[in-house]
Each structure stands twice: as C-alpha cells, then as structure tokens.
Amino acid sequence: MTAKLSGIAASDGIAIAKSYLLVEPDLSFESKNISDADGEINRLSDAIDKSKSDLEMIKENAKKTLGEEEAKVFDAHLMVLSDPDLISSIENAIREEKINVETALQNATDTFITMFEAMEDNPYMQERAADIKDVRKRVLAYLLGVKLPSPATIDEEVIIIAEDLTPSDTAQLNKQFVKAFVTNVGGRTSHSAIMARSLEIPAIVGTKSITENVKDGDMLIVDGLEGEILINPSESELKEYKKKNEEYAELKKEWDRLVNEKTITKDGNHVELAANIGTPKDLIGVKENGAEAVGLYRTEFLYMDSSELPTEEDQYQAYTKVLEGMEGKPVVVRTMDIGGDKELPYLKLPNEMNPFLGYRAIRVSLDKDDIFRTQLRALLRASVHGNLRIMFPMIATLNEFRQAKTIYEEEKEKLTNEGIKVANDIQVGIMIEIPAAAVLADKFAKEVDFFSIGTNDLIQYTMAADRMNERVSYLYQPYNPSILRLVKFVIDSAHKEGKWAGMCGEMAGDQIAVPILLGLGLDEFSMSATSILKTRSFLLELDTNEMVELAEKAVNDCETAEEVIELVNKYTKK
Fold first, then answer.
1. N or C: which end of the chain has fewer CB within 10 A?
2. 191 is catalytic
C-alpha cells in the first residue's frame, strides 16, 4: 500500500523518480588490535585510491556547474590524500601499535586537525583542518563499506531526500538529474526552498520525518503543488500523477505566451514584476521568465561560493555581467548579507545563541568596513554598465543608514578623484525587514531613494517565529493584519515622499498576497523568476479599484490571517 507524507509546498511542479538519500551515514567503528599490518595498509591504499577517483569526478562536475575557482577546493582535498607525512603516520601507527586502519586514520588526522585549528592567526591553515575532516570522512566511508552521498556525482534521475539542504548542497545539484527534493525541516522561505524555485524543480520542506520513512531507491511522487509525497505508488497513482503533470505543463505553456508582455492589470494599470537572483547564471531564468527588472541580487553567494573573500575585480566582473545582461533594466543589488544561517568558513564570525538577531548583514559591513568598501568600489565601478540600484540589508536605525551612506559617498568620491567613471544616477535604498525600520518608515523615506520590503524576515521578526522552524510555522503568517498594516505604512510613507516601494520577499509572488499588495499600491513585485509568468497571468484578471477596496477591508476589518484568506478568495472568486 502506498505511504503518504505531507509537508510545506515550497516549489511548484510534479516529479516522479527514485529517491536519493542525502544523509550523513554512521561512520562509527571499533578500535581493534590486528596481526596483519600489510592487510590493513592495503585496505588504506584501496580506500585512498577510490577516494581520489571520487574527488577527481566531483572536481570535474564542479568545474562545469560552479566554475574553475569553486572547483579548486577539491584540489586541496586531493593534496591531503597525497600528503606523505599524513599517510606515513597512519602506516607507522598500524605497524608499530598493531591497530586497525580506522583507528590509525582517526588518530593521525586528529593530530593534524588539532594542530591546524590552533593556528588562529592563519586562516589558510585553519581551512586545511576542514579539508582533512572532509577527506577523512570519505576514506572512512570506503573502509567501512558505507555509501557517502555526494550530490555532485549523481548521474541518473532522482529525488533528493535530506534533513535539510545547505546553500553549498543546492549549488551542486544538477537540474538534469535532480528532479525534486524533500526535507525534514524548513519553510517556504528557507534558502533551500528559494534555491528550488531558482532551479525550477519541485520541492517540499518541513515534512519532519521523510528521512525515516524513505529508503534509498524507493519510487516517489513529489507533488510540489499540494505539498504531498507518495512513497512507492501504485500503477494507477503513477498514471494519475503523470496526467496531472501534463496538465500543469499545459498551464505553463499558457503562461509562457506572456514572456514578452508588459505586466498590466485588468483595468490597464502597469506594475513591475522583477526577479530575485543569487548569481549571474540566474539571468537565464530571469530572461526566460520575462522579468522587467532584478529586484534583489543576493551578493552573499559571491562570498559563499569562494574559499576566500572575493576581490574587488572578482565582484566588479560579476556585477558588470548582471548589469549588462539586463540591458538597461533596473538591477537592485543588496550588499553582503552574511550571518544568520549564511556562514563563511574563512570569516570567523562569533558563535551566537541567536544568530538571526545577531551580528549579520549591515552590522558586519559597518564593523568590517574594509570588506564593505571593497564591495562598494566594485559596485560603483560597475554602475556605468547598466541601471544600478544599491540596497543595504538589515537596517534598524537611521544612524546605520547614514553611516552606510557616508561610506558609500566616500568611496564614490575616491573613485572620481582617481579618474574612474561612476554613474551619477544610482539610487540607494534599504531593505525593510526589521519592524523598527517599518514603524519609522516615514522618517527613513525622507533620506532613502526607495524601500524594498523583505517579508521573509519582517514576518518572522514581527511574529517572533523562526521561519526555519516547522513547529512554529503556523505563526509564519504573511496575511496577518499586523503584517499588512506594516506593509501599508511602508508603501504609504514612500509615496508621501515621492519614492517607490518594492517587495523582494517571497510574499511578493504569493497568489493570496498579490491582490492585497496591488490594492496597497506596491510599485515593484520581486520574486523567484519562476513565479513571474504565473503572477503576470493572475494580475491580468485583477481590477485595481476592486483590489484597493479588498486591501482596505483586509487591513481595517479583518482580525485574523484566516479572515484575510477568505476575503481574498471572495474577491478573486477562487
């Protein structure tokens, strides 16, 4: 009988394929005394050879999908496997102490890891400690006969099953083979969910127990439209979902006809539909889905996909590629938003009890202003190649914005004095994601050029509910009247000062939220590129005056999120 599980529908679509468990295997072992040292050394040699072969293949795949620079990390891993000091210390321990290879490997690598980790003033050597840990895990897996999952080596159609997916995991996913993924944890706005929408593959998150209920190789149906997973479905269920998938494909074809059309409402009003991107490669999806702008370029992936801080030139090249690729259409670039769940191994940020409320984003930039200044210089240099807008994230106070703007002006002046051309029409705005900034939006609006409302964080901070925690996911309520009132105040404050207000959180592409946001007067809706055509089609059916009436009732009359949903359904006749 088919088993069913449900979770949070995070990315639309239907996928049918075998499961691939991306979970950490049990690498525990017993320490033993041995009599055949040569046999143990042969086991070591065999495991190292297989590990090298793996890494060579992963490196080649990484070159194709991530680029030459990102693939260099695997060169470091291969160097560890060829290190004569490390290998001889393992072999000597086996011969002299008469211990099994697993124990000798663990002891020898522990010694090197401890030594490298102690070199706090040498980030390069600390990175080598991380390399040794990764390599040890791979060699141990071969010694123990345990499968070590590696998304970069997948060469058949699969559905990834995991506790969660890190940004580096999702960066390795090859869309040709990875047809969907399902996780135990997360919400619609977790980074794995956002990446799934960028990759245009179905995803379901927050199932709580998918890794316990699915075995490697199980046949799965993932319904990203409804948030349901069928495990080992029957023939009739496979037939039913193949038909459903065909119907969804036909609907997508209807949306595709709007790719070169302007976004207008039923009564002829134009609104701007923009795309959120993480790398220059995402421009393909932006163009295929007919975005009118880039409303959020998350520059932190430049930092996360590198083994060291990206240089000014590296950043300049990336920003130029995006600006030129958009051919004069607006590009809103968010400065480095590191911290929270986005860590940099080479930038030793402190461990915090609550990193989402801690040292992150603009707080790091203002503290480490050498990093901030490098990024601003790269952006300013690139500004002549397109329509650049710069946005500071995680702003809580006017003083933070003024401090960031002062650094920006200083770097602009330096470049001008150096004879380097800089565009003179760059807009500088802020992301409204902290309730304190939303409540003070009328004051901010006098000094900024624009607002972009980051609802992913604004909602979790306003509702005091971690958006990654499925246990409190019921409190992640985009339609709660308290959220709508904050959004209304931000938009009204911008308009009062003649400024524009956009939204770059996932709420901007939410089919319940879109009619309300239209009624509230939102100027720019920025979302995952894959949501654009669906939203453009939807807006064609909406009358602006009716949506103004809807928004007023939602903000003033409704008391709960459920009442808001009911009201929207009534107005949009869903």
1. N
2. yes
